[in-house]
Amino acid sequence: MSDTMTSSITADPIPASRITKVSIIVSKGSLDGIYPALIMANGARAEGIEANLFFTFFGLDAIHNKRIDHIKISTVGNPGLHVPTLAGGLPGMSALVTHMMEKKMEALDIPPIHEFIEMIADTGAGMYACKASVDLFGLTKDDFVPQVQEIITVGEFYDKAAGGQIIFT
Q: What is the pTM of this model?
């Protein structure tokens, strides 16, 4: 086409719906399973988005008084590490990789899990433990950090999640 015949046809952009609420399910008890949920919840709160965290199965370690400060990266069979399974199983490998990752996160000013949980709760995010998992592992509310508001059923979680996005990490 010649310059005189060219026309620019542009469609009006369709406004995207803004997310106003997220409910994040934390089911893994490893560093690389917990941090994505915390980062997403923190980011949501920073954007003014309502956020709830629902800790289930091994994700309960993230809010467990005795385990919260001892979360590690699983090095066996973790394809994201690009470490052969055999090497990942060597004694001390998980502790070494966890230490290295914690140092990198500290350099980026990413807080430890305990501090991150406190920060996110202080922004008004909801924190809940899954009743079925709590019962399965023989735990009580006393086993969890004070930021956990309630132990709730899956149905109660869905009530809290109503009208928002559910994210599974």
A: 0.86
Closest C-alpha among 138, 122, 132, 123 to residue 55: 132
Instruction: State the pLDDT confidence band at 13, using cuts at 50, 70 and 90.
Output: low
pLDDT attached to residue 88: 84
Give the domains, in start order, of the chain with CATH numbers. 21-168 (3.40.1260.10)
pLDDT tens, position by position, 131-162: 999 999 999 999 999 999 999 999 999 999 99
